[in-house]
Amino acid sequence: MTDTSSRDTKNRPLVAVTGLGIVTSLGQGQADNWAALTVGRSGIHAIRRFPTEGLRTRIAGTVDFLDTDPLVAPLLSQRFAEEAAEEAIAQAGIGGRGRFPGALFIAVPPVEMEWPQRQAMAEASGQNGAVTYTDLQRAAASRRFDAWHDLFIFGTVADHIADRFGTQGSPISLSTACSSGATAIQLGVEAIRRGEVEAALCIGTDGSVNPESLIRFSLLSALSTQNDPPEGASKPFSKNRDGFVMGEGAGALVLENAESARARGATILGYVLGCGEKGDGFHRTRSSPDGAPGIAAIRAALDDAGVTPDAIDTINAHGTSTPENDKMEAMGCAAVFGERIGRLPISSNKSMIGHTLTAAGAIEAVISLLTIAHGRIPPNINYAVPDPTLALDVVATARDARVSRVLSNSFGFGGQNTCLVLGDEPA
């Protein structure tokens, strides 16, 4: 990173990345994850966190080496975020003594009380028969459940992260479905471009692998039921794909005004060159049949970066392994990149770590920047039966390549689409 530019193609402050952190089912930290990703190792396995007898899907990419007590989404999400942020801030060499000199933007899963806590409240109500909402309210009002009240508030993860790392101002929590992690990065980029902050800590985290979430996604027919072997279930862009596999973890990025980063002697790992988003209200879960929102998000990211489609060296796909998502993403990419889409390497990390939901966009941004740094594209594993209707250059085994710019796609339920252009030098 020898470029000395401090403004982007639109004369805005250039946004540099100076720190990365990652936690997935493959391991903790950049080194462990990169080693596993580039050899095509899967982190998807049989769920051991709770009983799965009678469930159609019994596998996930859970992070079992950082357990919390109790095993609930807010605490798991907080723990993953802490570990990823710790690594990113240490690499950036910023924020000593718990005083991060910038804002916090964190993507967190929707929070609601989980079944074990609901059952405990029902038992505490003293009713032997049917328990009414009023009974639960009465039980919740007792001091016995004060800790749960704090635990299951939407902003509680952000508050803990802000306290631990000393971020400035009010922390921003957001939840925009599967695009959330990328949206957190976008908010950080925009704050730096507007001159509101010199640095931003952007995190996507999710610890939502619990019985209720698993069953809800299963009822939507969104999950793979190919439980055996677990590591073969997630197969983006393959003809025999049948659904996504839940995963969890966190990705964290330290973003800085490039001029400020250079002034303090920071090592610049890459740049967030462009962000594009497009929402649509077509359906709560399905994509618009014409692919227009996804196409618009990709084009907006390229335009924001000031680059043409030819400048992209590889695509880090959303690639969930559901029949519809992969078809729509392939169609959208073909509309933007034309005939070149058959020669443009594309790969989905979800084939190895599963769909980390709220965290996905941030985790995949970290992996995209590691791809640039190492010149190696991680594989889209389980691509044994190509879908002949998708004319894509799917990276079935890790591929060495000169990578300067990556398009990272995040397409969420409810038509929430966010795309990022990440690069090793200004456009």
UniProtKB/TrEMBL annotation:
The keyword Transferase applies. One of its GO terms (biological process) is fatty acid biosynthetic process. Belongs to the thiolase-like superfamily. Beta-ketoacyl-ACP synthases family. SUPFAM superfamilies: Thiolase-like. This is 3-oxoacyl-[acyl-carrier-protein] synthase II. NCBIfam families: PRK06501.1. InterPro entries: Beta-ketoacyl_synthase, Ketoacyl_synth_AS, Ketoacyl_synth_C, Ketoacyl_synth_N, PKS_Beta-ketoAc_synthase_dom, Thiolase-like. Residues 12-424 form the Ketosynthase family 3 (KS3) domain. Keywords: Transferase. Pfam families: ketoacyl-synt, Ketoacyl-synt_C. The keyword Transferase applies. GO terms for cellular component: cytosol. One of its GO terms (molecular function) is 3-oxoacyl-[acyl-carrier-protein] synthase activity. Pathway: Lipid metabolism; fatty acid biosynthesis.
